[in-house]
User: Which sequence fits this backbone?
């Protein structure tokens, strides 16, 4: 188990800190996630999260995702969360993956983030049975203080993050942030990421399942299947804590991506 980390000394990106460029919307999950079974709310939900080691070819990625989804379904998962895999998402392989998932996991709700197809970052709230109102965040939206503040007003019950971490250090910082989000934004926070990318490219692992400040499962290998039983119904955290301070490394990333400056009290914290 990991305790929530101490607040950081870095502050959000400068530019007179205007509004977040990430639009936050409430909408149908169609086009953002794909589900082929509507699971009703129950006393508990068994969640499977896939961490996928990127393969040499898209066809190999496809076969690996199908195989691990079948394993998750055999383990009794009610929900299977797959990471973004660009090579599969683009072109006909995305539709082929979905068709194969219907065969290998007929009794599970499969959630596959395709947010990157809509842009570099997305923040959406959608009804996802059996989780309820679910915040779906990708890219820099996962660490944007303004986007998180807007999402807080939507009172989601769960959050699924696809942060596209560019290093292992970023992945660790995202986990720190997610622990804090599970006691403020939503009681259940899931991180679903691929692994095996070069430094500076998205895909460095860090997948996890967090419930009310407790890490229920965390990836320990590039290819990993996380399973956790989460008590339901979920609901918002009670009592609801304040949103966590975004870790300095993620503040730095956000600023770099947006051409902004970061105010840092202790520069050593960014090392």
Assistant:
């Amino acid at each position: 188990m990991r305790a929530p980390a101490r607040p950081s000394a870095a502050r959000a990106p400068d530019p007179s800190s205007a509004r977040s460029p990430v639009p936050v919307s409430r909408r149908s999950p169609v086009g953002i996630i794909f589900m082929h079974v509507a699971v009703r709310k129950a006393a508990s939900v068994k969640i499977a999260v896939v961490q996928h080691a990127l393969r040499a070819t898209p066809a190999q990625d496809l076969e690996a995702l199908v195989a691990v989804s079948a394993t998750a379904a055999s383990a009794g998962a009610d929900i299977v969360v797959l990471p973004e895999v660009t090579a599969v998402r683009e072109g006909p392989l995305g539709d082929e993956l979905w068709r194969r998932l219907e065969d290998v996991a007929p009794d599970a709700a499969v959630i596959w983030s395709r947010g990157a197809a809509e842009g570099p970052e997305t923040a959406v709230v959608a009804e996802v049975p059996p989780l309820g109102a679910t915040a779906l965040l990708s890219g820099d939206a996962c660490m944007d203080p303004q986007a998180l503040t807007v999402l807080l007003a939507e009172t989601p019950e769960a959050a699924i993050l696809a942060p596209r971490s560019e290093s292992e250090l970023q992945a660790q910082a995202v986990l720190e942030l997610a622990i804090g989000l599970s006691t403020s934004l939503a009681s259940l926070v899931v991180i679903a990421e691929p692994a095996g990318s070069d430094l500076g490219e998205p895909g460095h692992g860090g997948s996890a399942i967090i419930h009310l400040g407790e890490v229920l499962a965390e990836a320990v290998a590039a290819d990993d299947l996380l399973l956790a039983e989460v008590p339901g119904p979920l609901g918002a955290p009670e009592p609801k804590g304040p949103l966590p301070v975004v870790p300095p490394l993620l503040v730095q990333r956000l600023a770099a991506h947006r051409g902004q400056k970061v105010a840092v009290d202790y520069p050593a914290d960014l090392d």
User: Anything to note?
Assistant: The chain has one domain: 20-265. Residues 20-265 form a domain with the Nitrilase/N-carbamoyl-D-aminoacid amidohydrolase fold (CATH 3.60.110.10). Residues 169 and 249 are 8 Å apart (CA to CA). The mean pLDDT is 83.
